[in-house]
Amino acid sequence: MKVLVCIKQVPDMESKFKINANGTWFDENDLAYRINEYDEYAIEQAVQLKEQLNNVDITVLSVGPARVKEALKKALAMGCDDAVHIEDEQSSLKEPFQIANLIADFAKDKGFDIVFTGMQSQDRGSGQVGIILSELLNMSCVSTIAEFEYKDGITVKRELEGGLKSIVKVSTPVVLTCQLGLNTPRYPTLPNIMKAKKKELLTIASTELFAVDSSYETVNFYHPQKSGGSLILEGSVSELVDKLIVILKEKTSVL
Amino acid sequence: MKLLLVGEYREKKLLNVTYDLVGIANKLGADKVMVASGYESDLPKFDGKLYLANANDVGEYNPNIHKQMILDVVEKENPDVIVFIHSSFGWDLAPRVATALKAAQFTEVIDFKDGSFIVPSCNSKLRRELKSKTNKTVITIQAGAFAFSDESTASPIVEKITPSNTSNVEFVSYEEAEAKGLDLTKADIIVTAGRGVGKKDNIPIIQALATKLGGELGASRPVADNAWVDHSHQVGTTGQTVSPKLYIACGVSGAIQHLAGMKKSEFIVAINTDKDAPIGEIADVLIVADVLQFVPALTNKL
Known about the structure:
Chain A: Keywords: Electron transport, Transport. The complex is a heterodimer of chains A (about 260) and B (about 300). With about 260 residues, chain A is an alpha/beta fold.
């Protein structure tokens, strides 16, 4: 069985974001990057499937600038077999439809049975790439999976709202987008990290793949104005404690 | 301008957020056409046209069937914007419909301005203003962003439709959340542990404050997913929606899904080292401090 895992590298969400010169995205310099949290669940699910079935070959793929090689190496150290880097220095300015087309062009003749990916990225949060990819490749797709079982076919549970789930059966080829909590992503072991470091990555320039025009433009990108409603208190812990107790006594009926 | 609104039914009932769709249409001053797979026994009230498929025949949600159902109505009505709720239903369908129509798609729209749609990014720390270059635009709207409480008494003109019934995805059944031992919706005081608490070993510090105040312990999604606290304590879209008199968020950054579950609290205190954390947007008081130092000090002083 051939499995593809699509991952993205995103900045730490705790970062102080600065707007880039064009006002179209954040300035990508001086940020710490990591694998998109949702995608770690996608990697883990692929590796668990491989451990269950043995005859599984996992390719991990990422679109992005040179730094995404680090994310791919980590995915290899977690248990993926091969890594593909679609090199694109401008990837952060591309929209989901453009990214999905690049991936689809790479994947179209490779015969992948299952594609795992995160349900959304932490930075854009559009939740579109995996689903568009399934449409472009004419594969089935179930998004937001919170449980996965491979036994006489594939059964997944989709997370709906308010604690409700739907149980869905689907056959391959299929794209599955992964929700947080699907599994417990493993930490790579040191020997596996060392092995992954030595592995060759396949690098393809995005310009060699099928490109589509953008369907929208970013008019503005900005920090929202503070609503001003919240009182911000800073200072020493003991001062803060005293101030808060006074406020709670004045403003609430609970103290 | 004409909007095609995609309504939602769950477990035989019209979802109330369907009225958010009416809300954005009113705000844009647009003509309203709705399409839904639902039941005649519970029809939405609005002034427009409703294309209704029978959910008993085609299911409440099936991506293949519902995609085609929407595309058929788009063909008949030629709307400018196709609007979904940003829900497990909407965010799954919208990219499928957008791809088929070669239309721009914007996810989780919270507002619009001069022909552009505004969406959050980076955990809601930033905003993007996006303008479509295609004839049709597909959007999902954040639940609550266009809330429309003044429910109309108008009835839509209903046209029944029969979508094709073939799919490569098979819905088996719904699964309810496990019986919850804890009902946070009735709590007057909730003290919630967020990711900023650091590790499972620190949860007793938060629990101690909750106990001292006579309240309950809440948890954000990552805290529940990491099994630091049982899922039954989770507050948010996929957990419980709460409205206590006092909500203390400890090390909670304030992901939109969490805010949706607790923003109706009467008084909100957030404790966070990050002054810019989105929780600050809705907190009455933001204490800029390390929860591991501040919370025990507060507990002692109470």
